[in-house]
Structures are given as C-alpha cells and as structure tokens.
Amino acid sequence: MNRNLNDGISYAQIAEGGLQESAAILQRMRQLAIQSQNGVNAVNDRAALDKEFQQLKNALNGIDYSTEAFNQLPLVGDTNLLSANVPSISNTFTNGMAQSMTSGLRSFAYIPAGSSNILIDLHDNGANDDVQVFTVEGEHLAGTPLSAFTWGAYGVVNSSAIEGTFFLPTNGYSPSASYDDSDLLTVGSATIDGNTISFTGDQNASGNLNGNLTITSNAQPLIHFCYRHRLL
Fold first, then answer.
1. 126, CA 20 to 30 Å: which among 14, 24, 66, 157?
2. Looking at domain 2-79, what is its CATH homologous superfamily?
3. What does pLDDT average to over the chain?
C-alpha cells in the first residue's frame, strides 16, 4: 500500500515538473502571438517572431514526450504510452556514452512520438550488425530490405515470415502490424509520414564497420531494432 502511494506521489511530481516547464513556454508563446499581431512589426520582424514560436513549439513537444514516469508519458494521451515490452530510448542509451550491446534479432529501443535529434553511431566490430527502424504498425522506414542475405540468415525471407516471427507485442509491435517497405530508406535522407531520418546504410561490404542513424524528428512511435549477420 505504501509503495503504491509513493509511486503515485512520484508520478504526480514528475508530471507537475513537466507542466511547470510547459507553462513557462506557453506564456512566452502567448507573448509572441500578441506581439506579431500588433500591426507595427515589419515582415522580417514577424518572420523572426514566428521562428522563435516554432522553436518553442518543438521544445514544448519535447517536454511532453520526455516527461516519463513508470514507463508512461503523463502529459500525453493513452495512445502514446510507451511499449510495456521494449525499453524507451532514454533507458537504453545514455547521451554521449559508448555502450556495448549483444547482437541478435531483437528490438532494443522504443522511440516515443515527438522525439527529436536522436543520433546513434553503430560500430559492429566485424559482426555486420545492421540497424532497422520500424513503426509499431510494421512500416519499415530505414535499414536493409528483406532480400538482403542478413535477413535470410534468420529465416526471414518475406513479409509473412517477419510478421509471424518478429512483429509481436512482446517486441513492441501492434497486434495488427503488417510489413510495409514501400518507403524504405536504405541510404540517404528522407521524411516519411512525418518521420525525418538520415541513414548511412549498410557499409560492411565496403569494409566500413561504422553506421550512422539520425532521427531528426518523428511523428509516430518507432521501434529501433538491430540484428547480427549470422553465417550459415
């Protein structure tokens, strides 16, 4: 009983902290909106006001989706709750710190909608680890196509195989997830359904063991996933 009470108090305190930060930003946004409508400012002045307004809007979204308590996001709706089965990106990585991880066919980070400027550098140490990014509904946003040998090494040769073996609630996916690679980014930069991503691609064949993935912003919850190239 005491533990539940203390957890409830902690949850409320975390939410209150996020609300206080949001209130200060909203006050400044209100000031900018009033200032831009006073009829005195030139076009360049209004553009500068709008630029600050948009920056504050992004900061507000950042607070909403980074205020996390007990694997929930108290400042957003239930549809944006974190996955109960996959740790959030903030619990998987520490900003600026190198981290060793075990290779394997698994989801290793849930990225809540509204996140921004996520940068992951991967060094595969010769194991030919690959990075994949999916939406929780199964859209393959970045990574290597299912025709790649590295997928076949795990028996994943088509959409039915990945849906049956990996698109599971235990891996963070919606029960209705279905594979879709119509907008798959294998290398380069793109904005796909509101998710802005840059990806160096699988460079192992050229002898480059490093890979880089940047998610500038994402409008949907994402699953960050890695697997190891296993020789048959």
1. 157
2. f41 fragment of flagellin, N-terminal domain (1.20.1330.10)
3. 79
Contact status, residue 176 vs residue 166, Cβ threshold 8 Å: no
pLDDT score, position 101: 66
50 pLDDT band, cuts 50/70/90, is confident
Burial of 76 (0-12, 13-18, 19+ CB in 10 A): middle
> Which of 130, 132, 85, 77 is closest to 110 using CA atoms?
85
Residue 208: is its pLDDT beyond 60?
A: no
Provide the H-helix boundaries in the chain.
2-36, 43-66, 89-92, 149-152, 159-165
- Residues present in the chain in total: 232
Cβ pair 105, 152 in contact under 8 A: no
What's the pTM value of the predicted model, to 2 decimals? Answer: 0.63
Q: Which part of the chain has CATH 1.20.1330.10?
A: 2-79
Q: Which of 15, 111, 144, 119 is nearest to 69 (CA)?
A: 15
